[in-house]
Amino acid sequence: SAEAYFEGLSNVLSSAKIRANYGLAGNFPTPFANQRTISFSGFKGEQAAYFGQAGNADLRPEKTATYEAGVDLGFWSDRFLLSGGFYHSITKDALFVVPPAPSTGEANQLRNIGRILNRGLEFNTVLVPVQTKNLTLRLNASVNTLYNKVLSSGGAAPFNINGFSARTVQTVVQEGSPIGFIRGNYGVFNENGVLERTTAQQYLGTTIPDLFGSVGLNIQYKGWNLFANADY
């Protein structure tokens, strides 16, 4: 909108910007998590050695690549602003403490297990219905979507990252599902509300919202400023 050819639209469309970016971020494993260790404890008054951390020579940082694109528009001398964008993020070599096969006798181990997808849309609007020398009223609202999915778990069986035992409620990582979804006993009730039966280790929902946003207002009168905001 800073270009000369845009001047003919400026009475209605006062500003326009197109943006895009790409970023790569990393997350390092816990220090020394790749090292094999020995633990020591007392046994019959003497010092005894036993297996400690199993170590993982293949451990490496997880990396998240994100690209984003959007447009920002201003109407009527920027009294109404509209912003929209799209983002797509892939995390590779995601780091999780994964339980080993019971036959190994080893403890849980930090591993790189696969890929995680996050993508969504972001919209934001700002409306200035009142703008005088002493008084300004500004309203804003935003809407965001999020789609999350574990694309690959690197061959690992579904595992718990938080919660209790498999007989109760857990948050679980499983290929093809949202990360940290809730798994537990699914109950079936009759018409009287009495529990008839349960099925163990069923999908009960996700902890990640797929729709969220905020609304707010800002009132400025001379030297006074009132701001209120609500998130949903």
Low-confidence stretches: none
Average the pLDDT over all residues and give the rounded result: 92
Main sheet properties: 8 strands, antiparallel
Radius of gyration over C-alpha positions, nearest whole angstrom: 27 Å
- Gross morphology: elongated
- State the end-to-end CA separation: 33 Å
Measured as a percent range, the helix fraction is: under 10%
Number of strands: 16
Annotation field: number of helices: 0
Percent of residues in β-strands: over 45%
> Which class best fits the helix and strand makeup?
mainly beta
Series of H and E elements: EEEEEEEEEEEEEEEE
Walk me through what this model shows:
- By secondary structure, this protein is mainly β.
- 0% of the residues lie in helices and 62% in strands.
- The protein is built from no helices and 16 strands.
- A hairpin with a 2-residue loop joins β15 and β16 (224-231).
- It is elongated and about 85 Å long.
- The mean pLDDT is 92.
